[in-house]
Design brief:
Elements: H1 3-6, E1 9-12, H2 18-27, E2 33-35, E3 42-46, H3 51-59, E4 65-69, H4 76-88, E5 93-96, H5 103-115, E6 121-128, H6 135-149, E7 155-162, E8 165-174, E9 177-187, E10 194-200, E11 204-211, E12 220-225, E13 228-231, H7 239-252, H8 260-270, H9 276-289
Parallel strand pairs: 1-2, 1-3, 3-4, 4-5, 6-9
Antiparallel strand pairs: 6-10, 7-8, 8-9, 10-11, 11-12, 12-13
Length: 290
């Protein structure tokens, strides 16, 4: 038995709506984690408007690791600076996405990357109930999921945010060409919360549906060809628990660097420079500097 399993790491739980869900995930991994505080604790940071400052504060003291829940928009240069500092300090900073962190996405990634072609229709739809999660955070979650399933997004061609809803059109290089994907997200009290990504090609189709991170329901992955439909095995593990399990493996391996922030900075860089979210974040950064 490893030293890590013998001595569960302390985890400082977040405040707000995520507290209960993270506490439940923590309770399911008692040999690896337990609630607590201390200089060597793992710290959770909620991805609100000021999350980079919270990460920077956590890095200013001795921390074992930091987990950011559903981050919203931040200046790409700020996130890159945090990634560099975390790497220098050997403090892994992981991102806990509601959609992209679900284990169903990881399981489906190989099949999706092998099957998706430029000739086809690709769309992502997310339904959320608000609970402090803004449309930009949902968009970044969708970009992270597409990064895992299809490949890195090259550009955001269109982006519209209206209240608690968003729509975007992005381009992703695949198979020697480029596929265009439509991303939609909205706050709604109708139906179940979660995300769905679909690709429809000439002779096959893929569909992945993931429930909200606060549920214990499984994600479903379907692969349809001219010969029939195949439903991939499902795992009853939500995104919060999957992130903790990934962090456990990362720490047991003795790895310090984690590339989550660097990948996020790349997605943030795609946001059009004239978009209000980007200009508002820049004003906030300038105010802190002054």
């Amino acid at each position: 038995m490893t030293e890590f399993a013998d001595r569960p790491h302390l985890v400082t739980l977040p405040s707000g709506p995520a507290h209960r869900d993270i506490a439940a995930a923590l309770a399911s991994l008692p040999r690896s984690f337990r609630p607590g505080a201390g200089e060597d604790a793992i710290v959770y940071v909620t991805g609100d408007d000021d999350w980079p400052a919270s990460v920077e504060h956590a890095l200013s003291v001795a921390r074992r690791a930091i987990v950011v829940i559903q981050p919203g928009y931040a200046q790409p240069s700020t996130v890159l600076r945090l990634a560099e500092r975390a790497a220098t300090d050997s403090v892994p900073v992981m991102i806990d996405y509601a959609f992209a962190s679900n284990p169903a996405v990881v399981l489906a990634a190989a099949a999706w990357s092998a099957a998706v072609e430029p000739t086809g229709i690709l769309d992502v739809t997310s339904r959320h109930a608000g609970d402090g999660t803004g449309p930009m955070a949902v968009l970044l979650d969708q970009l992270a999921a597409l990064h895992s399933l299809v490949g890195p997004v090259r550009t955001i061609r269109q982006l519209h945010i209206d209240g608690d809803a968003h729509s975007a059109v992005v381009a992703i290089p695949v198979g020697g060409g480029v596929i265009t994907a439509t991303l939609l997200g909205a706050r709604t009290e109708l139906g179940s919360r979660g995300s769905r990504v679909r690709w429809l090609g000439p002779t096959e189709a893929l569909e992945l549906e993931v429930p909200h991170a606060g549920t214990a329901g499984p994600g479903y992955s379907r692969h349809v060809t001219t010969e029939g439909e195949q439903l991939a095995p499902t795992i009853y593990e939500n995104a919060h628990r999957a992130t903790l399990a990934r962090l456990s493996r990362h720490l047991e391996a003795g790895a310090g660097r984690c590339d989550d922030l660097t990948t996020l900075a790349g997605h943030l860089e795609l946001v059009p420079r004239e978009h209000p979210s980007r200009s508002a974040s820049q004003r906030t950064s300038d105010q802190r500097a002054n």
